[in-house]
Structure formats: structure tokens, C-alpha cells
Design brief:
The complex is a heterodimer of chains A (279) and B (375). Chain A is built from 7 helices and 15 strands. Chain A has 279 residues and is α/β, with parallel strands linked by helices. In chain B, strands 3-2-8-9-10-11-1-12 form an 8-stranded mixed beta sheet. A 4-stranded antiparallel beta sheet of chain B has the order 7-6-14-13, with no helix packed on it. Chain B has 13 helices and 16 strands. Classes of the chains: A alpha/beta (279), B alpha+beta (375). The interface between A and B is large, with 48 and 58 residues.
Chain lengths: 279, 375
């Protein structure tokens, strides 16, 4: 009954470290073992368990393009013991990685259709992988609409990237901050206020969202009102994760294990509990 | 696929009481370490069994919500009691164990070494039907998904089970209601039915058959077989507690705002005793323990509980900050969403959570209060 060990990590080297905004950084990583590099592959929306020596593991989504055979990237916000420690690391340091885990975004199902991305806060990290994926395969998808909400104008990651994305063919970028700042070129208010302006084709759009659950619920409501089918709305969920393989029990969301059944769910799969406090 | 021929179950044999040592000897000769029930610190627990003298002969229990008491008499029986606090769970899903070790050298390179348990095959004597039902559930959790757990697998592989049909259910037992007992029907190698003069013994596997063959027993008489069957029927009839149905999933999730959740939260201490004694609860936490040598660090897992604050913590937010949401999580999972995950209820009717709850909260009473009318 000898089975491969899903808990065992592989060593990875930090090839590059990029500071995004205060308290948010990106690690560009490479497995040190060539055999692991060869067999490793992932889908946008999946995550890795990232291990800091002597401190522990955290689940973090992969933001880079799966076609990059050289490196993979994690964008990390400093929120706890492990991420605070990871923030101290530099290029040339080593960490542990196991993965990828979970179910990613429905990028095959979305082919030939418009893609609407709604994200809030650092929720943009999992959805950035979708943006990159679509832009690198532009001819396979219709309109790309990127809607991003942040609490404060200063929280917006990748300002230049949003500007660049807005220049791409058939791509719209819509950004809102609850609290604006000087020279803030975008909307001040909730991102979900801006649905009316985008003139969706509800029958031919797939929505992918990530971020605070209140924001996602508001967005689902607006999209349903506009005539979008619930099965075309996908959400990436977040819960405490320790094992990543459905054994430790922490990420349960009703009958779902976010780590292995998600983190990306279609809305009908989780609507029973979305918004119910305590699940 | 051709249908496998229906095998006729070998007819039960009779193991006289004074020949029980021969069964243990035979298991030891086959390479097993024997583990069985014994009286320790006022409770019947599973521990290394050196001889039949360690078994709780003449020991009986009295259980009620929040209460467990032992008394003795001159009864010759070894298994005239209902389950104590432990199930088979600790033998397979260790309460605490190392998963791997990380070693870091001077240049900062990290090497990972798995620390799989080295386990001698164990024969456990006295397993009850409810615990076999729980074993089947834990096998499903740890072994039958996309990522089988190698630590559980290492212990499970060598396990030999001698089940004993339950003859003395406690007042807290309700396995007849969940359909999991009191007689063992699966997952055992040998099953025993204890009578005053000895045991009706039957094999449930080839391994079990070989062990029984080795101790040359006469067939059980029709009278002995009837007595054992009658005893099991009485054990089922003696149970008074029931759940309002075998699948309460929809009934529970239709009642998430029932006032009873707040009421039970007023009594519940959120201590986690119920999840510790539950034979199916599988939640565990992973923790890192840097070693004093300064060059290595161990990754440990230990049982966790959905009644702790940390269980639902996620960067600055606790999803279940109060006892109401934690008790609701436990019950809706155990009796409800468990069906979504594993195609069965997570409750096998052992009654341990009732007995070992310090304030005597009764899962059957709560389930009936919340979804009795609609279950």
C-alpha cells in the first residue's frame, strides 16, 4: 500500500523578488530539482503550499502563466507569521513548495466567449493569472473586461499593468476605490456600481471573481439581474487550509472542501451557504 | 464482468472461554502485537494486551450524559460492557505524529525527509460494530481520495481485527438507530459473540479463517448460535436513543437559523471533548517545531477540533467566532454535509460524545429538537 506522499515538499529557489506595494511582494521561483521542474504543471486558479523553513506553510495562488516552463510566481500579502517571514527573503534564498492543488478557472469552457473578471482587494492575485492567460491567447477569447475594486486608492497593485492591459485589443479596465486619492484617475465608490456601464452580452459571457465575499455576492446579484446564467459565474473561495488534500478539515464549506473541490467554484455549487455567517 | 460465485460463509465455531489464550497465542505466532480492552484509570481503554488476564473480566460500565462509571461483579465475561472513550481511531490516525523533517545547511539549502511510522502489525481484540463503521468511514477519508495518506496507510495495512458483538449497550448508545450495530457485519477478520461458557466465532476474511483453523475448534451448536443471535437482538432492543432519520442533510441545512443553536450554545463549553472521542472526526492541525540543533525543523500534525478558535481562522478573520456557529458546524457536518462528502452520515451511534460531554449535551436530543419534525 506504498503511496506517494502528498505532504512532502520540494525545494525551490527564489530567482527574483519584486516589491509590489507596501506589504505585498512577488516571488519568482524555480524548483532546484530538474526532475520536479520537468513534471510540474498547473492551471490558473490553482495554488501551492509555500513553506518557510522553521515556521510553516501557507496556501498561495499561482499568478504566472502556465506556459512559462522556467519560473512560477506567487504574489504574497503580509498577513501572518509565515508571510511576514517570507517577506524577509531575497533572491538566492530557498523555500519549500508542494502543489499544485485544487481546481482552477474554467478557461477551456470560456473559449470563444467574453470574459468578465471582478476582483477586490488582493483578490486580484488569483484573477491576474486569468488576465495573463487570456492576453497571451487573445484570439481564443472575446471581450476581456477587468473590474477591480480596492478599499483605498493606494492599495491598487500593478497600476502600470492595468494601464497596459487597458491598451490591449478588445480589453476594458474598470477600477474603483472606496476611498480615492490625489490624481486617482478611476471611479471612487464600489466597483459593483459600475456594471451598468459595461453592456454585457449575458448569454456569451463567463464571469470569474475573487475577493471579499460581500463584494462577490453583490456582483452575483447584479449579473443575475442582467440575465446572466448562474452556471456561467465562477468564484474563487478562501478558507483556512493546512493539508491542501481534503484531510485536515479546516477549509470545509458545507459539504465542499475548498482545497480540493475548489478553490474555484461555479456559483450554483456554493450558493446555498454563500453569505451565511459561520460557514 | 462475470459475477463472482456466492461464497457460503463458513459455519461458526465455538471457542470455549478457557481457550481464549490460544487465540491470542495464535495471533502472536502470526506476527501480531495484540491490543485489547483493559481497565485503566477508571475506564476501559485499548492498550497492549499481554494475556487474557489483562482483559476487563467482570467489569461493567454505567453511562449517561456527562457520566461514565465502572463497577465489578463475579461475571466471567470479558466483554460485558459498552465502549469506553477510545475507538480504533487512535491506532490508525495518530493523535500526534511527525510528517516530515526539513534540514537546512549552511548555504540555506533545504532537504525534506519524510518520517513515516514504522509499524508492527497489530491485532486489535474487542472492536465493536460502531467502531468498525467508523473505521470504514476513516478509510474513505484517508485512503480513498486522490491523495491517500501514507501515515494512515502504514498503520492500516497491518491491522487485524477481532470484533466482539455488543451485548451490553450503554444508555447513551444508539447504533441500532444509525444502522451500524450492535452486531459486526463488515471490516473484521474474526467476529466473536460472547456467551457465558465461551464464544461463537466466525471468520470474516481468509486471514481470520487461517487463525481460527490454527486453533482447531468444534462447530458452534445450533443452540449456541441461537443464543448469540438472540443476545444481539436484545442489545438492539435495549437502546432507547434515536436520531430522527439516517440522512438529516436537508433538514439541518433548512434550519440554520433555528433558535435551538443559540440555546445549545448556552450550555456547550466549546471544549472539544466530543470531537476527541468521536471515532470519525478527522480534523487535524499542522504545526512546525524547529529542533534545538538549529539545523532542522519537524512538521507535526495533531488532532484539531472545529470547536477551537483557530480552526476557522483566516488572515485576521475568524469564520466561526462563537459557540453557536461552532456547534452548528459540528452537527451540520456530522449528520448533514458528511453525506455530500462521503455518501454516509458521520455518526455511527457510539454515544461517546454524549457520555464524555462535561455538561451532558446529547446529540440525539439536539438533532431531534432541530429537525425532528422534518427529518
Amino acid at each position: 500500500m506504498r503511496v506517494s506522499n502528498p505532504y512532502l515538499l520540494h525545494e525551490a529557489e527564489i530567482v527574483e523578488r519584486i516589491d509590489e506595494v507596501a506589504g505585498v511582494f512577488t516571488l519568482r521561483l524555480r524548483f532546484t530539482d530538474a526532475a520536479v521542474r520537468r513534471t510540474y504543471g498547473f492551471q490558473p486558479g490553482q495554488f501551492n503550499m509555500v513553506y518557510l523553513y522553521g515556521v510553516g506553510e501557507v496556501a498561495i495562488s499561482i499568478v504566472s502563466d502556465p506556459r512559462d516552463e522556467r519560473l512560477f510566481d506567487h504574489t504574497v500579502r503580509v498577513v501572518g507569521r509565515v508571510t511576514r517571514g517570507l517577506a524577509q527573503l531575497q533572491a538566492g534564498d530557498f523555500i519549500g513548495i508542494r502543489g499544485p492543488f485544487g481546481r482552477g478557472w474554467p478557461l477551456r469552457e470560456a473559449q470563444g466567449r467574453d470574459v468578465l473578471i471582478v476582483s477586490g482587494g488582493l483578490g486580484c492575485a488569483p484573477t491576474v493569472s486569468v488576465v495573463n492567460y487570456v492576453l497571451n491567447r487573445r484570439e481564443r477569447y472575446g471581450r476581456l473586461i477587468i473590474m477591480q475594486g480596492v478599499k483605498h486608492a493606494n492599495d491598487l497593485l500593478w497600476r502600470e499593468r492595468y494601464s497596459q492591459w487597458a491598451q490591449q485589443p478588445n480589453t476594458e479596465v474598470i477600477i474603483a476605490a472606496d476611498v480615492g486619492a490625489a490624481l486617482w484617475p478611476w471611479h471612487v465608490g464600489l466597483v459593483t456600481d459600475l456594471f451598468d456601464g459595461i453592456h454585457l452580452n449575458p448569454a456569451n459571457t463567463v464571469a470569474m471573481m475573487c475577493g471579499p465575499e460581500g463584494m462577490m455576492r453583490a456582483a452575483v446579484r447584479r449579473l443575475s439581474q442582467s440575465g446572466m446564467d448562474e452556471t456561467a459565474i465562477y468564484l474563487s473561495m478562501e478558507r483556512n487550509m493546512q493539508c491542501a488534500v481534503g484531510h485536515c478539515g479546516h477549509c470545509q464549506y458545507g459539504g465542499k472542501f475548498v482545497c480540493k473541490d475548489g478553490p474555484v467554484f461555479s456559483y450554483p455549487e456554493i450558493k446555498e451557504l454563500l453569505g451565511v455567517k459561520g460557514f | 464482468m462475470p459475477e463472482s460465485p456466492v461464497k457460503e460463509a463458513p459455519s461458526p465455531r465455538f471457542l470455549p472461554r478457557d481457550r481464549l489464550p490460544a487465540l491470542l497465542d495464535s495471533l502472536r505466532q502470526a506476527g501480531y502485537r495484540c491490543v485489547g480492552p483493559q481497565l485503566k484509570e477508571g475506564a476501559i481503554v485499548y492498550d497492549e494486551l499481554r494475556s487474557v488476564a489483562d482483559l476487563p473480566q467482570g467489569v461493567h460500565d454505567r453511562q449517561s450524559p456527562g457520566e461514565y462509571r465502572i463497577h465489578r461483579d463475579n461475571d466471567q465475561r470479558y466483554f460485558a460492557w459498552a465502549n469506553g472513550p477510545q475507538a480504533l481511531k487512535p491506532l490508525l490516525f495518530a493523535p500526534r505524529e511527525n510528517l516530515w523533517r526539513a534540514e537546512r545547511d549552511d548555504s540555506g539549502r533545504i532537504r525534506f525527509r519524510e518520517t513515516l511510522p514504522v509499524v508492527a502489525p497489530i491485532a486489535v481484540i474487542g472492536a465493536r460494530a460502531c467502531d468498525l463503521a467508523a473505521l470504514r468511514i476513516q478509510d474513505k477519508i484517508f485512503l480513498q481520495g486522490a491523495h491517500p495518506d501514507p501515515y494512515y496507510a502504514a498503520r492500516r495495512e497491518g491491522l487485524f481485527i477481532v470484533a466482539v458483538n455488543c451485548s451490553h449497550p450503554a444508555a447513551t448508545c444508539f447504533c441500532a438507530s444509525t444502522g451500524d450495530g450492535p452486531s459486526a457485519t463488515h471490516s473484521y477478520d474474526i467476529v466473536l459473540g460472547e456467551l457465558d461458557e465461551g464464544f461463537v466465532a466466525a471468520a470474516g476474511s481468509a486471514k481470520g479463517g487461517a487463525i481460527l483453523d490454527g486453533i482447531a475448534l468444534a462447530p458452534a451448536t445450533a443452540k449456541q448460535r441461537r443464543a448469540a443471535k438472540k443476545q444481539s437482538e436484545r442489545a438492539a432492543q435495549a437502546q432507547t436513543r434515536t436520531l430522527p432519520g439516517r440522512n438529516l442533510r436537508d433538514a439541518l441545512f433548512a434550519n440554520l437559523e433555528h433558535p435551538r443553536w443559540g440555546e445549545v450554545a448556552g450550555r456547550c463549553l466549546s471544549c472539544g471533548n466530543c470531537t476527541s472521542v468521536c471515532p470519525t472526526c478527522f480534523c487535524h492541525a499542522e504545526n512546525e517545531q524547529p529542533c534545538l540543533d538549529g539545523t532542522s525543523s519537524e512538521h507535526v500534525r495533531e488532532w484539531d477540533s472545529c470547536f477551537t478558535q483557530g480552526h476557522s481562522y483566516i488572515h485576521g478573520l475568524t469564520i466561526r467566532p462563537d459557540t453557536r456557529t461552532r456547534y452548528r458546524q459540528w452537527l451540520t457536518h456530522k449528520l448533514g454535509s458528511w453525506h455530500d462528502q462521503f455518501d454516509s452520515s458521520g455518526c455511527v451511534g457510539c454515544g461517546r460524545c454524549i457520555t464524555w460531554c462535561p455538561v451532558g449535551i446529547d446529540i440525539t436530543e439536539e438533532a431531534n429538537a432541530i429537525c425532528g419534525a422534518c427529518g
